[in-house]
Amino acid sequence: MPGMTLYDKLVASHEVARIDAEHVLLYVDLHIMNEYTSPQAFSGLAARGRDVLRPGQQMAVVDHIIPTHPVPSALRVIADDASSRQALNLKRNCDTQHIALFDTTDPLQGIEHVIAPEHGMILPGMVVLCGDSHTTTYGALGALGFGIGTSEVEHILATQTLVYRMARNMRIRIDGVLPAHVSAKDLVIYIVHRIGAQGARGHAVEFCGEAVAALSAEARMTLCNMTVEAGARAALIAPDAVTDAYVTVHAPQLRGAMLDDARAWWATLRSDDDARFDVEHAFDAGRIAPFVTWGTSPDQAMPVDGAVPDPRDEPDALARQALEKAMDYIGLAAGAPIAGVPIDRVFIGSCTNGRIEDLRVVAELARGKKVAAGVRAMVVPGSGAVRAQAEAEGLAADLIAAGFEWRQPGCSMCLAMNDDVLRPGERCASTTNRNFEGRQGRAGRTHLMSPAMAAAAALAGRIVDVRTWGDAK
User: Fold this and answer.
1) By CB count within 10 A, which of 82, 170, 190, 319 is most buried?
2) Taking 60 as the threshold, does the pLDDT of residue 154 lie above it?
């Protein structure tokens, strides 16, 4: 009998009951909620006269709808009436059911996928679910995380379990060394580009290899966060010394014998040598350049020194039509270089790239320089803790001096659910995870890239190759 993959071990360790060959009843260690995917679930519970079974294993946060204006935390107000009602409704539900909430004026408020790891809520071996697709982030710490729908939110609140359909196993090995000025964001955009927006559909993806081992815990979060853009149902990295160091700093509740026991468990969380994967890919990190999206899907991407593809080179009629549609929306011509394209806005933040490591990179590039005339550049930290740390390290002062807007935490311009939006036709260099039509605002044009690339674009006023621009020379 072949060995087990890390994914198989995580599922097996949380299996309450086997339903059939493809489904299990899965126990959930932590369930995270936000203001827009939970209201119907609480209403469903109330209609059935049920309470939340295990309130201590729930956490909630207001993050998608909250404005990020640079006012003190205590003065943050959601002016939009519908959004305000959503936030108040979440607070009422959490108060009634005794669930911890990072509310609008909480100084530690932020994006759910930034808050949870930094507060030690995510440990290797856990199953963590949330009504948000980028819950795959937690695989960076060896936890099984994935997004769920509203009806599933209700089921978890009522039972702390989920009827779960098993995924297939995929392994992506990345060996070699990432070149200078190439980051985990470039790596994941490259992978999504190579395997396609549906390339990992139905699979739990395990990352391994020299390049993955060399990534920091925060860089691994970026990698796992965006793997869902290839259709993955989960993304995982086996716990190692990097994981241990991050978790022991951020989870002070683990000490002494409890930490020793946890480490013994973590050591088992890796795929067996004879484990079989349904699909395997291998990539050389040394061949990867800074990547930029040119279209309206995260896989429509290319190296910054490349040119926009020509749809006429695509033999499949439907694929060719999709390329033409994306090119028309984004306003670029076939064969045109992506470097040099003028930009109007820059957004640095999100659950993909709103952590302290990301802001350090941006501040280093911005120090002593100025945002280009005519460009509006926003930096939105991923949480109140990240914001405070950036201010303590002097990063915020450097960014403000360079002309960047220093905002309060939240999802902000990652998606058009708050008042940080693009105007029609505006072109944005963005560190977010999706470049869909209208994602950042109606008729807005989004180019996904790394924090370093976005910072360089803000300073240059156009998309540039960070490897050959400014101090990178």
Assistant:
1) 170
2) yes
